[in-house]
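Record 1 of the preview.
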Amino acid sequence: MKLKQFRIFVVLADELHFGRAAERLHLAQPALSAQIKMLEYDLGVPLFIRTTRRVRLTSAGEAFLPEALAAIAQSEAAVRVARSAGEEGAHILKIGGVDSATAGLLPRVVRRFREVNPNVNLKVFEMLSAPALNMLENRSLDIAFVRKPPNDEHLQSRFILSEPIVAALPKSHPLAGSSEIAISDIAHEPLVISGRSSRPIMFDVVLDYLRSNGIEPNILQEANERHMIIAMVASGLGVSLVPSWVSDFRRDDVVFLPLKGGGPTVDVHAAWRENEQMSVVTNFLEYLPNASVPLGL
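->
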């Protein structure tokens, strides 16, 4: 299987029309059909049901779509990191990891760091924990932010913060004016969450929390991107459970409420190579919050 085939599959899954998909991809339609057939052959299952009147995904195609999107996104992140690693300059600091760090924590930390270190060129990439650790080991990253501390003697890590999960509701929701919400109050609401393929730890934390409260989730939709989740909540399609940093989106049509009893949390750890020689790495680590002290940035 080739990444090119994944991209072709994703476009066809979006268009559900071979002619339009071929035009979008600048391919001849027979070539597109051949690539899809090769992918189906490699997978051993049909991905599309084709009739003279319509094209639609099979159940296998629906299951494969989020995995293909995640694979494409990860490959693009790897390319960006590799290219930045090849740039010349003695003061490049490459940072990557989970969104609670790259979108939630780092904007405030980076602002303070750059005030004192204006000559350091920072490259920040969002990715899952496993690829972040792999890229840290092969020196494509200098600091990785991950959900769990690495079990590797060549890496060091430090617990940074534990972030609460909050409920996201459309502003029109009857409970939107509450100061907090019990999970039982939204137990039967359609749920929009990140798919396990895109954010496995977050997915498991949410499902374990719901099931520990006797709730079998009514999952309406799995979406890879946070802004898509919030857009779906805003449209009234369902509610969501998201890390608290997502409330920084500050949409007028969505409210974020803490969960009664505190709810679940997700952790963030910073990891770096053992005996790191780059002074810019140890310097940046000093700007990260101490887990025992409120963030207050």
